[in-house]
């Protein structure tokens, strides 16, 4: 691997450079403490990975400038608190391909770099939990408004859609709704077109099952097979 290091802390950068130079799979490692120098080093020999010491820089503008110098490189963030979900989420937003949290040993760093270059992210369970928690609080639960095309379904199509998600066949849906199989097939075809999915098996993945409060799915009782049936509803729709 050809590794470039960016840190405005010269002592840290030089120590990391010497440490990584001893790793067997690192063919070249160089250090830069300013953006012009990094751009120069990358133009001489493009880095397969660029490590950025976030603890030494001021704000995302610097990160964006670094990434503009080497758009094809794999960027790995250094010095991130693995318990800080917000910081991990910021790294993802900025375009980092990997993260080496504070406390990462030198022996672990090369593995993190290799994983990032392969398109993989190595996270400790604690870090992954923090990231998921932050995603949950930032994004919140998805509702029917997240799928505008769902709003185009008629009441009957929403009912058929719910039964399809319960795994009922066209014949079983026809029996449940007291409609002909041909009518059910027409409804399913319309649902496929409106939800923009290629086959009925993809319908459940296109919609969301959630608790009754403020979510698009409502438990509407038991169907003839003795199982729970879900009907696609809108939060404002009254039973």
Automatic annotation (TrEMBL):
It comes from the Bacteria. The keyword Transcription applies. InterPro entries: Sig_transdc_resp-reg_C-effctor, Tscrpt_reg_LuxR_C. Keywords: DNA-binding, Transcription, Transcription regulation. One of its GO terms (molecular function) is DNA binding. SUPFAM superfamilies: C-terminal effector domain of the bipartite response regulators (SSF46894). Coiled coil: none annotated. GO terms for biological process: regulation of DNA-templated transcription. Residues 146-214 form the HTH luxR-type domain. Gene3D superfamilies: 3.40.50.2300. CDD domains: LuxR_C_like (cd06170). It holds the Pfam family GerE. PANTHER family: DNA-BINDING TRANSCRIPTIONAL ACTIVATOR DEVR_DOSR. This is Transcriptional regulatory protein DesR. It comes from Albidovulum aquaemixtae.
